[in-house]
Structure formats: C-alpha cells, structure tokens
Amino acid sequence: RYWKHYAQRGSIPHLFSVHRHKIQEAIQKLKPVNSASLSVSSRTDTGVHALSNSAHFDLQRRNNKPPFAEDLLVEALNYHLQTEQIRINQAHRVPDDFHARYRAQSRTYVYRVALGVRHRALLPLTESNLCWDIQDTELDVEAMREAAAVLIGTHDFSSFRAVNSDMTFKNPVKTLDVASIQLGNSFASTYFHRQISFLELTFTSRSFLYKQVRRMTGALVAVGRGLLTVSQLRDLLEAKDNLAYPQNLVAPAHGLFLTQVAYRESDLPLRQAFCTDNFKD
C-alpha cells in the first residue's frame, strides 16, 4: 500500500471524480496485478485547488517483483500524467491498514483574496483563477480577526454548510483549530509592474462541512467590508441554520487551496528495501 500527496489545479468540472480517475489510469499503466483503486483524503469541488492533497492505493507487481522505490513511483505516475493539471509530489509505502482519509489528523485550507482589482484583466496571468479579486482597496482586517476568533473552537457549523446529498449523514459539530488572516503576496510580486495587495485566510480542522470554508471566508470578508458586524456573525453561527446564511456572500471556489493534510508520524512511512529497476514493467 502506498500513500502519496499530490497537487492539482481546480479548473476541471467534476474535479474530484476526474482527477481520481486520471490517477487510477496512471497507476493501471504500471501493469499491477490488482485493479487500481484510489482512496482520497479530501474531496475538492469544481474550481478549488490543492497544493497537497493525499491518497492511498494498493499496488502489487507481477512475478513477485519487489515494491517500487518511492521516487521511482513518483516519476512513473507523473510520466503518465503529463497532460493533466495534476502532479504527484511524494509517495511512501505504508502499512496495509493505513487509510488516507480516516487517519488524517487535520486539514488546512488557505483562501487568497486580491484587493483593489477593478477588473479581472488587471490581474497578472499567474493569478488567473487563483484568487478572489475584489474592488475594495482595503478591508477592516482587525474586525475580520475578531470575527475569526468567534469561529475558533467546537461549534455546530450548520449555518456555514451548503446543502448536498451527504447533509443528513454528516455531524455539523466541528472543531476549528485555526482561523487566521494574514497579509499575502502575488505569485508574480517580484516581476509584475503593478503592486496588488493580498490577504490569506487560513483554516485548520480535522474535517470540514461542504463549502464551510468558502462560507466562512465570505462572511469574514463581509465583516471586513462593513456589511456584517462581528455580533451579526456570532448570531449567524448561533443560529445553526444554513438558511440563515445571507445570499451572495459565499466566496468563489477559485481562491481556495487545500495546503496540508497532516498525519501522525507513526502512521506514515513503512521503510523497507525498495527495488530500483525502471518502471516500464
């Protein structure tokens, strides 16, 4: 069994199923004995990006060949994913009972907001569909931080969940460990001729509800714009009702990045001797 983490750009419709299918196809091209089946730690909806998602899969080689070396497996899978908006970053061999989703201890998302952008065409090309560009030249960051502090801790986040097919099966009580707002940078800050201010909103929890991060982000930006008060955000949280969430506040998907899925060290690499032959068979 292998655990790997990978990066993906979230511009493809039905992103989760498409990327899972493409990775499974790449694994199958390594000609394993077993059929490739990928278990992903975190689902991302259309437009959301992942700098470090993770997954596990089983791979048994033919003719009792030893397991692939980790770096060779990364190279092999990326070779078969060349045309896709996805790259494998690392791979580790793990125990047979390891599960990428259920063994995850926390997930961290970062939401990027570009300030003072009158029109999307004014963004550098490197930021295209990689941030939420708003016309406001500044936000009340201190008020946003005060509001973010309200969200930290264990709460019923029903007001910040969107309706989906899993809604009745998921416990709305979640523990939010981190909700912070910091200054950020453009990916092209050194080379772009026009200075653009960025904010980065960071959220960490063991798990999140459907669109919870985008809804929390939209509410915090509304506080920064003066459209919501800290007291109103607290009332929204305490309402425990997704219908209480104001319309048109949800932050768009393309500014959101899954940046880390954390595990216990004891759950990860199973260090053994690996083969070093080529990956063609």
TrEMBL record:
Q: Example GO molecular function term?
A: tRNA pseudouridine(38-40) synthase activity
| Top-rank lineage group of the source organism | Eukaryota
- EC number(s): the record gives 5.4.99.12
Biological process terms from the Gene Ontology for this record are: tRNA pseudouridine synthesis
Reactions mediated catalytically: uridine(38/39/40) in tRNA = pseudouridine(38/39/40) in tRNA
Q: Which principal EC class is assigned to this enzyme? A: isomerase
Task: Say if the entry is tagged with keyword tRNA processing.
Answer: yes
In this protein, which residues make up the domain named Pseudouridine synthase I TruA alpha/beta?
Answer: 147-263
The entry's keywords: Isomerase, tRNA processing
Q: Which residues form the active site?
A: 45 (nucleophile)
Q: Which InterPro entries match?
A: PsdUridine_synth_cat_dom_sf, PsdUridine_synth_TruA, PsdUridine_synth_TruA_a/b_dom, PsdUridine_synth_TruA_C, TruA/RsuA/RluB/E/F_N
Q: Kindly name one Pfam family recorded for this protein.
A: PseudoU_synth_1
Q: Which residues bind substrate?
A: 109
HAMAP family listed in its UniProt record:
TruA
Q: Which family does it belong to?
A: Belongs to the tRNA pseudouridine synthase TruA family.
What name does the UniProt record give this protein?
A: tRNA pseudouridine synthase
- This chain's source organism reads Oryzias sinensis
What lineage, starting at the top, does this entry show?
Eukaryota, Metazoa, Chordata, Craniata, Vertebrata
